[in-house]
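for the record, two folds in this file. i put them one after another cuz i was lazy. first one right below, seq on top, C-alpha cells after. the second one comes after a little note so u can tell where it starts
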Amino acid sequence: MSDRHSKPDSGLKLFSSKSHAEFMRPLIVPPGQKISLAKDYDPDYKAHYLKKSDSKSDLREVIEALKHYQDMLYAQNTYSLLIIFQAMDAAGKDSTIKHVMSGINPQGCQVHSFKAPSTEELDHDYLWRCSKALPERGKIGIFNRSYYEEILVTRVHPEIIEQRQLPPSLIDKHLWKQRFEEINNFENYLVKNGTVILKFFLNVSKKEQKKRFLERIDRPEKNWKFSTNDAKERAFWDDYMTVYEDMFNHTSTAWAPWHIISADHKWFTRLAVAGIIYSQLKELNLHYPKVSEAQHQELLQAKVMLESES
C-alpha cells in the first residue's frame, strides 16, 4: 500500500494512455455523433476479461488509487466532481456506488438519490432540486438518478409532464429539444466553474433484469428492493430504450460525454466506472497544497515548541 506522498497509481497499467483508449472506445458516446443503443453497445461486453477473477487485482488497484486522488481533490479544494448514474431498475447503481467508493473518505463524498419530486420540488423548475445538491469544491457528489429523469420517464409516461404544474403553453413539441439545450447549457456552466462531470448509463439487458428481479423476489433479504411497479415498467422497455438513445444523441457533449457501461456483469461495471473516475481525476493534475516559505517557518517554530514540552 502506498503512503500519502508516493505515486498512487504506480504499477497501475490498465489505464495507461494506450490501454485506457482501447478500454474506453466501446463505452463512450462520441459527442456530435448519432449512436444506436442496441447496435453499438453490448450489455454483455467485458473487454478482455474472461471472468470475474481476472479483474480482481485491477479493481483493487484502481480503488486504492482513487482513495489517494480523492484525498488530493479534497485537500486542493479547487475542483468538484459530479458523477451521474442513470439506468433501468436492477442495473446495479447502488452496488456500483457502494463498491467503487469503498475506499473514499466519507467526509469528501455525498450521495443523493432522486425519487419522485416532493410538493416543494414541484413548485420549482426541474433543475432546482439537483442544483441544491451539487458538490462543493474539493468534494465528490454522486447523483443516483438526476434531472435526466425529466427527459426520460416524463416522455415514456406523458401524463407525468402534465402533473408538473407547467403553464400549458410550454408543453408542446419543442419541449424536449428545449430541455436538451437547457441541460447542455447547465452542464457547460458547471464545467466552466470547476465542476467535472462524469455521466454513466448502466446498460443492463432485459433478460438480465428479469433474472435480478426474480432473485429479489426469491431471496427474503432482497424483497425490500423489489416493487410490483418495477415489473410493470418492463412493458415500456422499448420506449425507454428509445428515449435513452435520443437523450445520448442530444446530451453527450465535449464537456460532459455519456459513458454507456455494460451492466450484465456487475464486476465489470464496477471496474469500468472506477477506472473512468480514476482517469478523470488523474487528468486534473491534482496535488497537495504547497506551503509558502513563511508558513514553512511557522511550522518549524511550532515543531520546536512541541518538542520542547516536558
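(here's the note) second protein begins now
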Amino acid sequence: MSMAQQATPAVDTPPAPGRKQSDGRTRQRPLALRLLARPEVGVFLGAVATFVFFLIVAPPVRDGSSIANILYASSTIGIMTLPVALLMIGGEFDLSSGVAVITSALTASMISYQLTLNVWMGVLLALVLSLGVGFFNGWVLIKTGLPSFLVTLGTFMILQGANLAVTKLVTNNVATDDISDMDGFDQAKALFASSFEVGGVNVKITVVWWLVFAAIATWVLLRTKYGNWIFAAGGNKESARAVGVPVTFTKISLFMLVGVGAWFVGMHNLFSFNTVQSGEGVGVELIYIAAAVVGGCLLTGGSGSAIGPVFGAFMFGLVQQGIVYAGWNPDWFKAFLGAMLLGATLINLWVRKSATRR
C-alpha cells in the first residue's frame, strides 16, 4: 500500500476559547424565569403589592398594633391552610375543614364542662375525634375511590348538622357554656391563645405557631421521604405505587393532618372566647382552599409549597383587616377574595407557561 493510500489520522482541534456553545437543550433559562417558576414567588409579589396598596389607602395599617392584628388574622387562616395545602399537593382537598374546627372546639368544651373534668381531658379527646374524622375521610376515599370532593362534602354536612343538634341537646342552647373558671383553663390558654409584647405591641401566640408550623411543613416537603411521597401521590398515584410509594398511608395521614390543624385552631377559638357558637365554620373551608391555591398549590395535585400558602394566608388576613381599616363596607371581603383567587390562578397559569417557554 502506497503512502498516498494510507488514511490520514484525524486531528482533534480544541475549540477556540470563548463562549461555550449550547445546542438549546442544555441552555439554562434566565434567572427571572427560574424564579417565576417557583410557586411561591408570584404570591409573594402579590402580597407585597397588596400590602403597599393598603399602606396607601388605609393609614391605620401603618400602626404597629394594626400590623399585629393583620398577622393575627392571617395566622388563624394560615395555621389551617398549611395542612390543607399539603393535602392539595397530595392530590386531594377537604371541604369539611371549616366545620371540623368548630366540632373540635365544641367537643373539648362540652366534655370538660358537662363531665366536670380538667379542660385538658377535653382537649385530648377533641384531638382524638379530629384525628378520627381525618382518618374517616381518607379511609372512605381509598376504599371507595370516590373523589375527595364528594367524600368531604358528605362529612361537611354530617359535622354541620351534628354541631348544631348535639350542642342544643346537651346545653339547650346553640353555644357552649363558659369554661374560663375550670381547672387547666389558664395553662391551655397560655398554649393556644396567649399573647406577648413586642415593642409595646401585643402579638398573639398563634403568629409564632403559624411560622413554626410553616417551617416544619417546608422541611417535611423538601427534606424528607414523606415529602417525596406527598408529591408523588399527588402527581400520579398509580406510578407512585409502582415505585413503592405507600399511597394509601400518605393520603390517609394527610387527611389526619388536616384534622390536627382543625383541632389546633378549634382550641385557639375555645380558649380565646371561652365559649363556642355551634353554627360557625361554614364557608371558612373555602378560604383555606383559596389561600392554598393563591399560594401556588394546584387543585390537580403534585405541585406547590408550604411557603406560598403562608403568603396566601397573609394576603387574605391583610384584605380582611385592611378593608376595615380603610373604612370600607366589610361585605366586600368575599368579593375581594374571589377576585384574588381568580387573579392568582390566571397569574400562576401565565407564569408557568412563561417559565417553560423556550
